[in-house]
Design a protein that fits this description.
Elements (H helix, E strand, L loop, with lengths): L4 H30 L4 H20 L2 H15 L3 H24 L1 H12 L3 H14 L3 H16 L4 H24 L4 H27 L8 H5 L5 H31 L1 H38 L2 H37 L3 H9 L1 H23 L3 H22 L5 H28 L8
Helix pairs in contact: 1-2, 1-8, 1-12, 1-13, 2-6, 2-11, 2-12, 3-4, 3-7, 3-11, 3-12, 4-7, 5-6, 6-9, 7-8, 7-9, 8-9, 11-12, 11-16, 11-17, 12-13, 12-14, 12-15, 13-15, 15-17, 16-17
Length: about 450
């Protein structure tokens, strides 16, 4: 069956709603800390959030890999394979979370050395980290559950999980900080409690979903290491790809920290708006993941091409809308996130980069979903590494005389490189690699 505009929106709309709640949560964290009397709190939350972006986004392959594998099993009507995809991913997620907890002291220490915060910012960031790290088992499990549901074309379940998690987080942010007078400790504790609330709901929804896909759990495929070969083959490449992406954004935060606390805070405000863009456009990427994965499972070239064309078209429309929105209301958004005038003034100075960002970034966001659905993790890895090592870092080095403007220009070159590289690879490697029926 060839995907339609309605199919794309049926999958994308709930994911856009749930995805937007994630950066909105980050904006609430930023807004709550940005309205405290000491700007060091805002810098500390930016540093702490960067560390956990590196940790949790670094293992986002758990979500992406699970989606691609599950979508192809779903397309092939393989009920046992659906259980294997879920069980293996959850086991790996919990194992990684255990490593994070055991190694939390060295992780925290070396993260601070790499990001370079000083004085009060460093102290508050350490406090944030020591609390937030305990959310790791829940956060990683939620990544798996969300990826599994997307692969099944069930986007209502991820919507419920993400909304419950983030609404709980926002409510506890306001309770702990505004009502009870806590600071970064309250923001971190709110995140921990909220993630576990999401797991409880997620497991409940999984049990309900499995009733519609009758079958047995092949325990030998969950307990024997050799059975994880396919899982690790895909996810190892996704891990490298994601770490390169997180490195790029962490590098921007680290450079901001070295240029001063106010510039760090201003970049944090703008990157929150960039993240809002990314998560909104990811709704169409998630739709592409599910539809492309199913098309590959069915070996249908026509379904694949149509899924990509429609998803990309709507992504571009929404990206244009974001550019217009940031142009008209960007200053108001900055003012909402912080009332520290010095931070506002600096953020407004660099706002033009945020206005052009949607038009440059949209291509890489959508093609990420295409490559995930097709489980072309090696191509994703290679393109990301090339964009990071051959475009972003050399660009930043050459553009250093421009200061923070050079840093943002390097980011735009990085995004453009990813989009161009993935478009070429899609045409040559994915679309040309399927010659199946049209169905």
């Amino acid at each position: 069956m060839i995907p339609t505009h309605r199919d794309v929106w049926r999958l994308a709309a709930p994911m856009i709603l749930s995805n937007i709640s994630v950066p909105l949560l980050g904006m609430v964290d930023t807004g709550v800390s940005g309205h405290l009397e000491n700007p060091s709190y805002l810098g500390a939350v930016a540093i702490g959030s960067t560390i956990f972006s590196f940790l949790f986004m670094g293992v986002n392959f758990l979500r992406m890999g699970t989606t691609g594998i599950t979508a192809q099993r779903f397309g092939a009507d393989d009920h046992e394979g659906l259980r294997v995809a879920l069980g293996q991913a959850v086991i790996v997620a919990l194992a990684i979370a255990l490593v994070f907890l055991v190694l939390q002291q060295p992780i925290g220490h070396y993260s601070m050395l790499l990001l370079g915060p000083e004085g009060a910012i460093r102290t508050f960031a350490r406090e944030y980290f020591s609390i937030r790290i305990w959310s790791a088992p829940a956060t990683l499990t939620n990544l798996v559950l969300i990826g599994w549901f997307i692969g099944l074309h069930n986007v209502r379940a991820p919507l419920f999980i993400v909304l419950v998690t983030n609404i709980t987080n926002i409510a506890l942010d306001l309770l702990f900080v505004v009502v009870l007078g806590m600071a970064v400790d309250g923001i971190a504790a709110a995140s921990v409690i909220a993630e576990y609330s999401g797991v409880v709901l997620g497991v409940t929804l999984v049990l309900r979903e499995l009733k519609q896909h009758r079958g047995a759990w092949p325990l030998h495929k969950l307990t024997a290491i050799r059975e994880y070969g396919g899982f690790f083959s895909i996810n190892a490449n996704l891990f490298v790809r994601t770490m390169a992406l997180v490195f790029t954004f962490s590098f921007i935060t680290a450079q901001g920290a070295r240029l001063g606390g106010l510039l760090l805070a201003a970049n944090a405000v703008l990157l929150n708006l960039q993240t809002l863009l990314a998560f909104a456009l990811d709704g169409f990427a998630h739709a592409a993941e599910a539809l492309v994965g199913k098309a590959v499972g069915q070996n249908s070239r026509a379904a694949l091409a149509q899924a990509v064309t429609i998803s990309l078209r709507w992504s571009v429309y929404v990206a244009v809308g974001f550019s217009v929105f940031f142009g008209l209301f960007g200053i108001e958004m900055i003012n909402l996130l912080t009332d520290i005038q010095a931070v506002r003034d600096i953020a407004i100075r660099y706002l033009p980069w945020l206005i052009v960002s949607p038009l440059i970034s949209v291509w890489s966001y959508l093609y990420d979903g295409v490559f995930v659905g097709a489980t072309r993790a090696r191509d994703m890895r290679n393109i990301m590494l090339a964009s990071t090592l051959l475009v972003f870092l050399p660009g930043w080095y050459l553009l250093q005389p421009m200061g923070n403007h050079g840093l943002w220009l390097a980011l735009m070159l990085f995004m453009a490189s990813r989009g161009i590289g993935m478009h070429i690879a899609y045409r040559r490697r994915i679309l040309a690699g399927i010659s199946g029926h049209a169905n």
